[in-house]
């Protein structure tokens, strides 16, 4: 896809100026516009057909308009508060605020605190990130229904990427499948990590003895984790971790397998003496913008509760 493609939103429509359109041998400028969209925007074919059939593509002079922002209703009810006051819509300090790290007409990146699930699972009535994100647009009065592109474990904090319309979701999902969305994590682990530990390349599969646990298994799926030692403490280490694959609990499984379970990660052998959940945080997220193709880098500062935790780790 060409870099630097720009557009201007006008209500429900995105206006583009593709320049001179050379009509194909069979067809006119409209058909040339479709070809341009497929070539330059790598426009999802199914969505392009839908827009074409529903009158969502207009060509006037040198301007090409696409109806990419129709009103949408979220499948997740907005959570302004905890369950007992959601229906009233009254703000309540017990419901964590949503920190927006990045937003434009196509994408949203928000910080997910540890202890908040990305979406409902039918087991808990606590507000999830999906409910909190839905509340953002309900409060604004905007008919937008963002959907997450990737997930984080309940007790892992960090940035979560959302697509705000069908075009963005399809483009970001495709980028995810091509491993073009980069995620970098930091973790506090037990023991002093040897600087020579750079790559953990071990397949990960289900643990048949525990429903929610994974383990290194010859029959598992390929999993590659890159490790960088950042800081050492008397009995612990701070590592920066990059994923080449996205297996469930990958960092937790690989670091435990290497003899360095995450602090607080009881499921994989970590001690909860200093922290009640795994010390794992998404430090940054990089993704190709759905419209321009240019890389967007979003950083998420380390959690505040890591400051006293690191101070304790410095104690002999």
Automatic annotation (TrEMBL):
Presence of the UniProt keyword Endoplasmic reticulum in the record:
no
The record's annotation in Gene3D superfamilies points to: Pseudouridine synthase
The region annotated as signal peptide is none
Which reactions appear under catalytic activity for this entry? Answer: a uridine in RNA = a pseudouridine in RNA
| Limits of the Pseudouridine synthase RsuA/RluA-like domain | 108-257
What keywords tag this UniProt record?
Isomerase
Question: Which EC numbers does the record give?
Answer: 5.4.99.-
Cross-referenced InterPro entries: PsdUridine_synth_cat_dom_sf, PsdUridine_synth_RluC/D, PsdUridine_synth_RsuA/RluA, RluA_PseudoU_synthase
Tell me the GO molecular function terms.
isomerase activity
- Source taxon at top rank: Bacteria
**Family of this protein:** Belongs to the pseudouridine synthase RluA family.
Function according to Swiss-Prot or TrEMBL: Responsible for synthesis of pseudouridine from uracil.
- The entry's protein name is Pseudouridine synthase
